[in-house]
Amino acid sequence: MERIYLDHAATTPMHPEVIEAVSRQMGEVFGNPSSIHSFGRTARHVVDTARSTAAKSIGADFNEIIFTSGGTEADNLAITGIAKAMKQKGRHIITTAIEHHAVLHTCEQLEREGHEVTYLPVGEDGQLRLADLEEALREDTILVSVMYGNNEVGTLQPIADIGQLLKDHQAVFHTDAVQAYGMESIDVKAAHIDLLSVSSHKINGPKGIGFLYAKEGIALEPALFGGEQERKRRAGTENVPAIAGFNKAIELAASSLEEKRELYTGFKKQLINILEDKQITFHLNGTLEQSLPHVVNLSFPGTDVESMLVNLDLAGIAASSGSACTAGSIEPSHVLVAMYGKDSDRLRNSIRFSFGLTNTKEQIDQAGEAVAKIVARLTNK
């Protein structure tokens, strides 16, 4: 039985060229990038090359890239860094109800420390309303954090419009672009983005490495203390092998962006067409138009998310849900709650399929057929 991986929004397999880049660095480059001798300079060159690649990929400048351990640290550094650096200007933060927990839990911690956080609602399409953001803005608002594309349902937010709204306000604009980076064309200057978070393992790079873009002039209070790495913004000896792998992953993602967008959008439509042809009852969570090309979240009335996932796994298909299932109990997806309400049946029967490296049209056909059979069996149709 062929195993089909359709959970690329959770993590992605490392590209063979990335594995080669990481292995080469582990075998050949061991110097500390902060050392001034030749071994250190060799390592520094690897880091500098990757920083240039990362900056170019989003239209940023070399010194605006801060390497982190991943998206979670990048989100934490952006939010707590601004909250502490701008505490004399205000303590009000605005975010949305559908952010990743790396953002939501950081905001909740800041609330416990005396900050005020406004959690903007979204519609059934998963998008915030600009009017709600404009109404929530205050003179003492210091940060607005809105994710670029949602990791559960794929909905894209009007990032450029938000940047335009905030460009003359003191509030710093942060976007968690972990799920969108490598899939969407991003220009931080054109969109007036001040802070942007990225993670390597979402683009076929190694785990444990990411970056935070911080616009020149943005004051950030560091979360780690030690050496003077990353221009004193993130202490700790750089993970050179992972950074080298990240560099290669960024290059590969940039060179195939449009090709991937077209391919994965086709996969979404292909999967939906198969289910429609099989007369399977389902609902799309979010929209096809304003969404990431590689993520589709479907609700299957009359099914149970845990039974679906178990049956899919037995059929060799790896997918995920909008819910965290633990020990037979379901913690409803905060994203679906925000979109449809806490009493919606969609909280209990929604499955996320996400596409990526190595997926083929033949695999999507197989997966679609398997999903149709499983849903028919579970609903006795």
TrEMBL record:
Pfam families: Aminotran_5
EC number: 2.8.1.7
Enzyme class: transferase
Cofactor(s) named in the record: pyridoxal 5'-phosphate
UniProt key word Phosphoprotein: no
Catalytic activity reported: (sulfur carrier)-H + L-cysteine = (sulfur carrier)-SH + L-alanine
Domain of life: Bacteria
SUPFAM superfamilies, per database record: PLP-dependent transferases
Keyword Transferase: yes
GO molecular function: cysteine desulfurase activity; iron-sulfur cluster binding; metal ion binding
Protein name: cysteine desulfurase
Family label: Belongs to the class-V pyridoxal-phosphate-dependent aminotransferase family. NifS/IscS subfamily.
Coiled coil (UniProt feature): none
PANTHER family the record matches: CYSTEINE DESULFURASE, CYSTEINE DESULFURYLASE FAMILY MEMBER
Record keywords: Iron, Iron-sulfur, Metal-binding, Pyridoxal phosphate, Transferase
Domain spans labelled Aminotransferase class V: 4-366
